Amino acid sequence: MTGGPLTPDLRDALAGQLSDGALREVSDAYLSEPRGTWRGSAGAVVAPRDTEEVAKVICFARDHGVAVVPWGGGTGLVGGQTLPNAAPILLSLERMRAIRAVYPDENVLVAEAGAILADVQAAARDAGRLFPLSLASEGTARMGGLLATNAGGVNVLRYGNARDLCLGLEAVLPDGSILHGLRRLRKDNTGYDLRNLLIGAEGTLGVITAASLRLFPQPGAEGTAMLVVDGPRAALSLLARAQAMGGVSAFELISGQGLRFLRDHALPVRQPFDDIPDWCVLVDLGLPEGGDPACQLERLFEAGFEAGEVSDGVIAQSEAQRHELWAVRETIPEANKRTGAIASNDISLPLSEVPGFIEACGARLHAAAELRINCFGHLGDGNLHFNLFPPEGRSKAEYRDRAADLRRIVDDAVAERGGSFSAEHGVGRLKVEQMRRYGDPAKLAAMRAIKDALDPAGIMNPGAVLGD
Amino acid sequence: MTGGPLTPDLRDALAGQLSDGALREVSDAYLSEPRGTWRGSAGAVVAPRDTEEVAKVICFARDHGVAVVPWGGGTGLVGGQTLPNAAPILLSLERMRAIRAVYPDENVLVAEAGAILADVQAAARDAGRLFPLSLASEGTARMGGLLATNAGGVNVLRYGNARDLCLGLEAVLPDGSILHGLRRLRKDNTGYDLRNLLIGAEGTLGVITAASLRLFPQPGAEGTAMLVVDGPRAALSLLARAQAMGGVSAFELISGQGLRFLRDHALPVRQPFDDIPDWCVLVDLGLPEGGDPACQLERLFEAGFEAGEVSDGVIAQSEAQRHELWAVRETIPEANKRTGAIASNDISLPLSEVPGFIEACGARLHAAAELRINCFGHLGDGNLHFNLFPPEGRSKAEYRDRAADLRRIVDDAVAERGGSFSAEHGVGRLKVEQMRRYGDPAKLAAMRAIKDALDPAGIMNPGAVLGD
Questions:
Q1: What is the pLDDT of residues B27-82, one digit of tens each?
Q2: 3-state class (DSSP) for residue B448
Q3: Is the CA virtual torsion A211, A212, A218, A222 positive or negative?
Q4: How many Å lie between the alpha carbon of A414 and the closest alpha carbon of chain B?
Q5: Which of A190, A204, A417, A432 has the highest number of chain B CBs within 10 A, making it the mutation to test binding with B?
Q6: What Cα–Cα distance (Å) separates residue A248 from each residue in A230, A239, A240, A284, A413?
Q7: Can you list the domains of chain B with their CATH numbers?
Q8: Is A424 on the interface with B (CB under 8 A)?
Q9: What was the ipTM of the complex prediction?
Q10: Is B336 on the interface with A (CB under 8 A)?
């Protein structure tokens, strides 16, 4: 079964059960998504004021067999928040944005699902702590969606994914019951791990309404370097070297193609090197108070230079320079957008497979079509954004018919090396076909059994992750 | 439904399907457990040689409705490996103990479920890496059981529980299908998190057959100190101080009662202080190469002393002294055993609730009965072993009728403060009643739905975790 549409009659009946202000206008923002590929639909946009009201909505949906799409900041890149043609209840958590409590002594913060990531970061900072989840959409993305999709970002190498930053969840399950799991415990072995089941389920098993989150001591001293490396293999050796020294917060791979895109579109970032290198890495350190990151980065450079891994480098000497280096990395997605990608891939690989993959998959793609590849991303996590672009002077439109085939070349190469076709963006609706093709049959069967057991009416985000 | 017994006829039929050597003698070791409280039963002990043979056993059990109890090292403390009177198939992983692969460059090791923890640690060490899971039974406990119970131990503060050390699982699900999930990825968002569902399910949702595990760089320099603290509250302040300095691997609380038990039973450990203090902490540091842990511990002592948190201390000046200090902590369970506990509690609390709990729960217990409390454990994780003993000159036998009531006082006090009645030992069969009393109703209902969906015949470790 899958949930059906919210008819106007049902909408009126639902509205009668909710508090003032719960019904929102169905505006474009709720129906579009960042890449502009799909458009969703809505029988109503409902923004409950509290968890009890979320439960009321879910009970209503369950009783009437109506589809519900949980809606956070709308920043998802795989269409999980966008159900076309079904007129579901779009359940927006936007009014539930409280930081319910901060426990600095425990390194714990409790936030509602509608809290914006940047606000959670700020609340942690105000308490003298760090909430390390950090990604491009942090000014818009909300905690519920970040957890439902197990978001990644630039600090995963050190602090883990959203999953690893969550100690407990409050959620409304598809039967309308409230899961009271806002624990603040580092160890708790009392039954099945529903928290991690809801995290990454992309709203198909319930609605996350609040979370207890892990905080960390703020680093006492931070530093950043951009180092020219001999290639992905050298970058990995350098990563191991950096990790043995300790304190690595981020280790990002940047290709010459990315730097050229920045230059070609005259984006306002300072090129770190006079001659654009083929490959470089951005290394970020966070050390305890008294540490000297610039000195440690210097030692890393020297050791890498001696080993033939590194040939040039810039070590930031001020906060302003750190931001300049980071701006290079963070502006690459904008440069990609302006160039116009044929296909974008968010993949991960076992670390030691990364260099071979980049080489072999690149060769296959170049044999199949004339194109440019911008390969960049979170090398420390084995997570690459491996995006395909037309050659100079041609447009992505000319490649429309080839895009699926080219994407398939990438996905097959990833699967052959034990990688994942979705590292940090999730499955949503975009990657349901890939899920079917590359998913383990036993896993898919167990997922379906769990879905049917917890959501027999199929009301929760139907079509996402599992397909219809 | 719950699985039934393996009759002699069924046993012969099963034996006919398996390779030579799969059937083991049903010896006492398989039926007893470390605390000697219960005795299990077995229609047969089966030790498959590989994953396919595990699947064959599960298919047989499924087809004939026979109960299966996965059996690792037999070290569990809550009876999860011990099913009385049902004559199940005891499925021992003892023959599947291979380290299948080590990837030092990726900080990954793939071990079969029957690999003994100490062997996994050694394999990591041989590759110049650290596998940080460490607990008293590491010479006997096997990876499958450690993962199925999400084991903890002394390094959780820094490296996490068994759950956090696992990147992927191979398992046989209750329908006999093989889950091929031995991924070596740091980021993978492709569907529901079955890995974490199986971890901590204590064999009720399937049999873990192999795991890909996270390794870490070996610390370049390690150090240990035992510091006398003013009480649990001072200990927590000192913990925050130590964490801001970085590199804390373990932070263990030790009570004067524990030190007195060591002395009373003349156990062969050196008392760290001339006068036994009321409270002390064991602090362990692991720093990158070039770090100076003794110097950092000195700074910690000085800062703690100035703040009135610390009054005395010993900082190990050699590996031998480190081991001496650790021996104090590690011999306390033996001292407890010789004293004879009325009740042992493996609890966790939100960190800031720990001091209030120790005080208030202690007062309630002393008001209810004449007894001694030995409170010790992994303070950094909020995990206390809060064990109750008769006063000197009396025996635990005299308290037999009171034990349940006293345990209930502890559990109630834990629940009031948002804690857990099982921090690291799991639920097994010992704590099913507590699970029912303190478990969240929505969680219990969802657990039951998942169990019935994945194991409709109820063959997997029936009675554990969920009860009958």
A1: 999 999 988 888 999 999 999 999 999 999 999 999 999 999 999 999 998 999 99
A2: helix
A3: negative
A4: 12
A5: A190
A6: 20, 9, 10, 6, 29
A7: 220-331 (3.30.70.2190)
A8: yes
A9: 0.96
A10: no
